[in-house]
Amino acid sequence: KNLNKKNNKRTKSFGYQVLGFGAGGGASGISMDYLIQAAGGGGGGGGPGSNGPCNGAGAGGAGGHRVSAGGPAPLTSCTLEIEAGTYSVTIGGAGGGGPGGGLGGKGSNGSPAYIGPACAKLIEATGGGGGDSGGANSSGDPGHSGRPGGAGGGTWAFGGPSTRGLGNVGGYSPAEGFDGKWAGPSGGGGGFVSGNSPGAPGGSGYANSTLGAGSNFGYGGTGSNYPSNSGANGPGYGSGGGGGSAAAGGGGGGGRVVVRFPAAKCVSATGGGSVATSPEYKTVTFSSSGGFTVS
What we know:
The protein is an all-beta fold. It is built from no helices and 13 strands. A hairpin with a 3-residue loop joins strand 12 and strand 13 (281-294).
C-alpha cells in the first residue's frame, strides 16, 4: 500500500506496514491503528454574475481520510507497525468560504493532517478542495471549476463533469476521497465514500465507532441554488462547506487524528492529544496539533 509518498524505512512484515523514524528509536514492531482526517474545503460564494438567476456555487470537498479500523471495507488501509519513539501530529486549518455577492469567489482548500515531521511524513491526508464560485467567467476565473483536494470541490451551476474538482490528489490506494460533483443546480463537494456525479447534495462520508466514538467523517458540502438557498455544510469532522447563494460559502470542517496501540504499551500525548485507556487499547485522540510517545 502507498501510505505516503515520503515514507522512511518501508518494509512489509506479516501483513502490516512497517515504518520507523520516531525520535528516540527503540524496538520496532509496535502495532498502530489510525484515523487521519484532514480539514475540509470551503464552499464557493454565490452571486448573480452575468448568466441570469441560477448561478449556484459549488460546495467544498471533504478533507482526505485515511483509516485502518472501523472504516468502509473497500476504503480501509493496513494497520501500521512503527518503532518506539516520539512522533509529531499536525492538523491544519479548514478552508474558508468564498465571498458572496457580485461575482462570488471560490472557497479555499483545507490544510492537510499528518503524523511525523513535514520533511518525512509517516502518513498524511490532503485537505479538501474548495467549491467553485457562482459568478460568471468574468470573475477572473476562466477555468471555473471546483478545486482539487483530498475530496474535490463541486462546480458551479453551469459546470459539467470536466469542471469538477478532482479528489485523491495524494494518489493513495485506497483513495482518500472522491471527485466533486457538478451542476444540478450546482455541484456538491466530494466525500470520502462517494462523489463524482451530478447533483447538489454532498458526497457521503461515514460514522466510525471503532476509532471515532461514532462521529461522522468525510462528508462533502451541499451546493447552492441562487438566489434563495445556500447549501448546508457537511456534518462532522473534515466536512466540506456549503455553497453560498447570494452570500458567502460555508467554511470547511476541522480535521481530526486518532491513533491506537495495544494496552500493554506506554503511551503519552502532548498538545491537542488526550489518551484514553481500555482493557485492550490505549487510544490518543487529537483535536489539534500535538505529539505522542509510545514504547
